[in-house]
């Protein structure tokens, strides 16, 4: 039976509808752009499947203008897309265009990870897929992995995790795992860049209570994607909650947090910044706030000046040699 004629089981707008025949109809991020060479930036990309056998997990690798790259080794950024854990892929136009722009501006190698998504694959599957993808990328650190672009051009002494929204949440949780895993990872993670990270909690903080409709929507999301532990104080979604692992375990040396003034998640980003700064973690954390903008605004308009400023700040974070403490607001 076609989904359009099937009986609706439930819907979680504006993300998706689920039908009683099991079909999931995603309403956002369903467009797709192929990998290849971008005519605007000269950035080349390719897809690698079978990262996890018999699954839909894949990665899209980006390199800047491969025709003139030569034997240069560039910082490696492993990127996790957002979308409430349940929407979008690396081939969605907003993410593909963003990674082309970021790679061109920052002169980095980027690996964009596609993890399995709820509701078909509820959390923690996205975390587990992302961890396995990270391990696959790190298997190239000695130059003898299966992907030549990583063997030839990735500087495994300068590895960063990044993502936006739910993808930033994944990046944080992988960095926490990297700081406590035994045995240690083959590669050290230098830094983590969190753009408009999806952190939450059971009680409102800051200005959250002023936006009851937005708050109700975010309140519902975690229980939808993680039905096995629907509490909004789960440490994976609220790393500042009582009983959460200490942030001193964060397995990197630098953290950049970007928040947006009109984003209901903004206050959680600031709370994370403050908690990390006073935790005793031995790294450098910085935060920037974009005035007048809402959640992941940059993905929808890469050409506006505020998007360009955000991307330039990320490029600086990935390339500078010495960390320094900086607050911008």
UniProtKB/TrEMBL annotation:
Domain Alpha/beta hydrolase fold-3: from-to ranges: 77-298
Pfam assignment, any one: Abhydrolase_3
GO MF entries: hydrolase activity
Active site: 165
PANTHER family reported in the protein's UniProt record: ALPHA_BETA HYDROLASE FOLD-3 DOMAIN-CONTAINING PROTEIN, ARYLACETAMIDE DEACETYLASE
Family: Belongs to the 'GDXG' lipolytic enzyme family.
Protein's UniProt name: Carboxylesterase 2
Organism: Nicotiana attenuata (Coyote tobacco)
């Amino acid at each position: 039976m076609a989904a359009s004629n099937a009986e609706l089981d439930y819907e979680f707008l504006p993300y998706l509808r689920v039908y009683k025949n099991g079909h999931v109809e995603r309403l956002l991020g369903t467009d797709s752009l192929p990998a290849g060479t971008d005519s605007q930036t000269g950035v080349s990309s390719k897809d690698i499947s079978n990262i996890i056998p018999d699954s839909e997990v894949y990665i899209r690798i980006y390199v800047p203008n491969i025709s003139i790259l030569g034997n240069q080794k560039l910082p490696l950024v492993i990127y996790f897309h957002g979308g409430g854990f349940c929407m979008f892929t690396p081939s969605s136009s907003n993410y593909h265009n963003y990674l082309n722009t970021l790679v061109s501006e920052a002169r980095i190698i980027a690996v964009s990870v596609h993890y399995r998504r709820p509701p078909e694959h509820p959390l923690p599957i996205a975390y587990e897929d992302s961890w396995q993808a990270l391990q696959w990328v790190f298997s190239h650190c000695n130059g003898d992995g299966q992907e030549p672009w990583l063997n030839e051009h990735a500087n495994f002494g300068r590895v960063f995790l990044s993502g936006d929204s739910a993808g930033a949440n994944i990046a944080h949780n992988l960095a926490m795992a990297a700081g406590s895993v035994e045995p240690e990872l083959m590669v050290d993670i230098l830094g983590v860049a969190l753009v408009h990270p999806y952190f939450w909690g059971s009680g409102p903080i800051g200005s959250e209570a002023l936006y009851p409709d937005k708050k109700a929507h975010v309140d519902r999301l975690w229980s939808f994607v993680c039905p096995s532990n629907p509490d909004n104080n789960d440490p994976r979604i609220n790393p500042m909650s009582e009983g959460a692992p200490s942030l001193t375990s964060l397995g990197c040396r630098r953290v950049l947090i970007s928040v947006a003034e009109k984003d209901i998640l903004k206050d959680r980003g600031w709370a994370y910044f403050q908690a990390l700064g006073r935790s005793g973690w031995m790294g450098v954390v910085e935060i920037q706030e974009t005035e007048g903008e809402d959640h992941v605004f940059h993905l929808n308009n890469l050409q506006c000046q505020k998007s360009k400023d955000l991307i330039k700040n990320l490029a600086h974070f990935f390339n500078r040699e010495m960390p320094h403490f900086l607050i911008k607001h």
